[in-house]
Design brief:
Layout lengths: L2 E3 L3 H25 L4 E2 L13 E2 L15 H28 L2 H6 L8 H12 L14 H25 L3 H4 L1 H6 L3 H29 L1 H10 L1 E3 L6
Antiparallel strand pairs: 1-4, 2-3
Helix pairs in contact: 1-2, 2-5, 5-8, 8-9
């Protein structure tokens, strides 16, 4: 039996903060969306305007709170938006200091060649997720997925959320223009949330397939037991 130190303390703290923050933000976000479940492009969007998508009304078991309460949903959402934003900032700073990004998430040129990508896809389909030579390292599909979540999906959620705030009109007026208007920011906010939910679903599926006890234990203690076939 061999153990390796796979996840440092800052990664583990950020992971579990996100588990709580993202869960509450999705539920409260759906509660807010129930007030007007239509999405538009541009600066404005209201009932007379043509929406690009009409969403269903989300049931109470999916929203926070469980009954329709726009004010309370907003309070939950805005508080945990701060938690999500400052947690991401802290994680990024610590990852630059301990070189986590450079060691674990740097995508090398040979890793994105068609042959290498196809090899990793076949390994995943065969439920082989770890490199025998370096079982603690992320493969390129993991790097792409994690980098997309850290540098694209979550920042998009944070900055489009800021762009929707009326308080940003005076503080950062360029932010609204960056996303093409407040209604466009709301649409991008929703799309980024759906992308993050997709990432979470795939992530949980792979954790289950790779062995949930060992994977969860490593995210609590930092130490991961190398499978027998990787010795």
């Amino acid at each position: 039996m061999r153990w390796i130190y796979k996840h440092n303390i800052s990664t583990r703290i950020w992971h579990w903060i996100n588990v709580v923050a993202v869960f509450i933000m999705i539920g409260s976000g759906l509660g807010i969306l129930n007030a007007h479940p239509h999405l538009y492009w541009g600066q404005f969007g209201a009932n007379p305007d043509p929406a690009w998508i009409h969403l269903p009304r989300w049931p109470g078991w999916m929203t926070i709170p469980g009954n329709y309460n726009l004010a309370l949903s907003r309070r939950w959402h805005l508080f945990f938006a701060l938690v999500l934003g400052f947690a991401l900032l802290g994680f990024m700073l610590s990852s630059l200091i301990n070189r986590h990004f450079q060691k674990q998430l740097t995508i090398k040129a040979h890793e994105i060649t068609p042959s290498h990508l196809w090899y990793d896809i076949k390994e995943h389909l065969a439920l082989r997720f770890h490199d025998p030579k370096d079982p603690g390292a992320f493969n390129v599909l993991q790097k792409i997925a994690y980098a997309s979540a850290i540098f694209i999906m979550i920042p998009a959620i944070i900055f489009t959320g800021l762009a929707m705030s009326p308080g940003m009109d005076a503080a950062w007026p360029w932010l609204i223009d960056l996303f093409g208007g407040r209604s466009s920011a709301r649409s991008i906010h929703f799309i980024a949330m759906v992308a993050l939910i997709g990432f979470i679903i795939v992530h949980l599926a792979l954790v289950i397939l790779a062995g949930p006890i060992g994977e969860i234990r490593s995210m609590i203690t930092g130490y991961w037991r190398v499978p027998e076939d990787n010795h």
